[in-house]
Amino acid sequence: MSTNPGLSGLMEQITASLSKIKNEVVELSHQIHQNPELSGEEFFARKSTIAVLQRHGFILDRQQPSAPTAFSMRKGSGQLVVTLCVEYDALPNIGHACGHNVNAASSVAAAIALSELCEEIDITVHVLGTPAEESHGGKIDLLNEGFFDTSHLAMMVHASGEDTVGNSSLALNAWDITFLGKAAHAAAAPELGTNALDAASVTQHAIALARQQLPPNSIVSLIVLQAGRSVNIIPDESNLRIEMRAPSREQLDLINQKIRNCLEAGALASGCRLQVQERGHTFAELRQDPFLSTAYATALSERGRLAVVNDSPVASTDMGNVSLAVPAIHPMIGYDVQSAAHHTREFAHYGTTAQADAAIIDSAYALAGAAVRAAVDADQRTRLLSRTKH
């Protein structure tokens, strides 16, 4: 590691770098926002992001992820590997209603700014394009394929209506459910049928009653995809989709068993056969690294922002699985969304405002600041190089 000019000098360099690239990364955010792509289909976002990073000296790794819309790039050859995760998938019909265009641009900006300090603070900046967060969890694929194996810390922010640090998230898994019965004429011979709609109805009631005994902050969501196509035919098939969330994987396992019992009750009561298909990966709870969270909040305050410490769970993210393997942070960066909730058209509307653009640069500064503080703090550097939790 070469002699560094001190923390304040390093952060001045970060500020200067961000000033130079501001228009470029804001344009990237706007392009991704204007070209929303569903999970696994983020070809435009991938190509655009890679192009920006290549202009700043990042090189595609020889080994690339199996997902066609993921990527792995790096710059530098320092000992401490800082990984920035780039999310860029949108939602069906409502576009970037979770602000992933902001998330992506923030990580890209932080990566470029940090990469100017690779020699001074002995780091390698690693950027991962992480598709399909809104569906099966692309980061889990990358984790399983070994793309976090060299990471000593992993970071990203998430768009929000307020600045917070320390949030946890809920562990999550989802099932596709099929009940198979037997069709019959609903008027002439209903007794010859086995009603798959009955199985769905019993299941819904059983789950509604089971919710009272679930652990605090646990959520079970259910929709009926189809349960018959003609009123004069006993439905021979019904299809449901269920999501289960809990504060931890351990509690999620308990909830899974309760819900499985409800499904089997529906099958038993109606005489139908039950089929259960897992949807995507199981998301683990998010556990943010305390030192990195504090370092991020401190750097963010230098931009005139006060991040609220909030350890309550916020939805679910595949970054949770990463955080159990690598010291990580996933703070929320705020801009004015007029109280709009995530996953609404209203939230998407505010994703390219001047405030959203400012949030990209401010959060990039804070992410870079967290990495710089970790790199120059001897104790934290040693801890992270051993990839242990604080």
From TrEMBL:
| The name this protein goes by in its record | Peptidase M20 domain-containing protein 2
Entry GO terms, CC: cytoplasm
Residue stretches spanning the membrane: none
Query: Which classification does the entry list for the species?
Result: Bacteria, Bacillati, Actinomycetota, Actinomycetes, Micrococcales
Alphabetical list of InterPro entries matching this protein: Amidohydrolase, Bact_exopeptidase_dim_dom, Peptidase_M20, Peptidase_M20/M20A_hydrolases, Peptidase_M20_dimer, Xaa-Arg_dipeptidase
Q: Which domain of life is it from?
A: Bacteria
* GO MF entries: dipeptidase activity; para-aminobenzoyl-glutamate hydrolase activity
Q: Which Pfam families match?
A: M20_dimer, Peptidase_M20
Where does the Peptidase M20 dimerisation domain start and stop, copy by copy? Answer: 175-266
**Family membership:** Belongs to the peptidase M20A family.
A single GO BP: folic acid catabolic process
Gene name tied to this protein? amiB1
Please name the SUPFAM superfamilies in this protein's record.
Bacterial exopeptidase dimerisation domain (SSF55031), Zn-dependent exopeptidases (SSF53187)
